[in-house]
Amino acid sequence: MIRTRLTILVPAIVWLALASFNSAISHFAIILRDNAESDLINTNHALLDLAFKSLMERIIVVSVIVALVSASLSIFGTVLAIHPRWLHQDCRYRFYFECLQIMVGLISLSVGGYIVGCVHGSQSWFELLDSHGHLPYYGIIYYGAVGQASFGSLVITVSFVRFIICDFCGH
Fold first, then answer.
1. pLDDT tens for residues 71-106?
2. What is the pTM of this model?
3. C-alpha distances in angstroms, 45 versus 53, 57, 127?
4. Which of 97, 115, 79, 111 is nearest to 159 (CA)?
5. CA 62 from centre of chain
6. What is the reported pLDDT for 33?
7. pLDDT at 148
8. Burial group, residue 85, by CB count within 10 angstroms (0-12, 13-18, 19+)
């Protein structure tokens, strides 16, 4: 029983970490979007600022969606691990958790790839609009999205392997 709870709680904690990371990405995108809005009076970079503002708004939307979905999965996993009757009586809740992990893994993979595709090649925009230069926003957003896509593909692979192993063992 302890092993089952741990196999549910560990991914739930990781999904919560992914939700926190996507919240940070959306916060950084808001900061950069606001910097682009404040730079709109500069006529030399007006088109660049509008394009960058649009890019940051898209990143905000998709990162907030992933944050909400992964936080919801984390809450479901925590409740599932804590609720003793759900673990003892019925295996369908664990099956639902695995299926939801695959779906959220697909979402994470898709959004990570989308952010990488949007941000790739725009490092100069980030440097131009980061007036303070405190954080490497480009590196955090770009490489974080690469990590998020890698994590999504890992979750999908591990979940499918787990389904195959459980199917062969008869669980």
1. 999 998 888 888 777 666 667 777 788 888 899 999
2. 0.81
3. 12, 18, 13
4. 97
5. 9
6. 83
7. 92
8. exposed
Nearest to 119 by CA among 50, 40, 48, 58: 58
Q: What Rg value do the Cα atoms of the chain yield, rounded?
A: 20
CA distances from 16 to 19, 22, 33, 95 (A): 5, 10, 26, 20
Cα–Cα dist 17/14, whole Å: 5
3-state secondary structure the chain: CHHHHHHHHHHHHHHHHHHHHHHHHHHHHHHHHHHHHHCCCCHHHHHHHHHHHHHHHHHHHHHHHHHHHHHHHHHHHHHHHHCHHHHHHCCHHHHHHHHHHHHHHHHHHHHHHHHHHHHCCCHHHHHHHCCCCCCCHHHHHHHHHHHHHHHHHHHHHHHHHHHHHHHHHCC
Instruction: Judge contact between 8 and 100, C-beta under 8 A.
Output: no
Tokens of 143: 């490489």
Residues of the chain with pLDDT below 50 are none
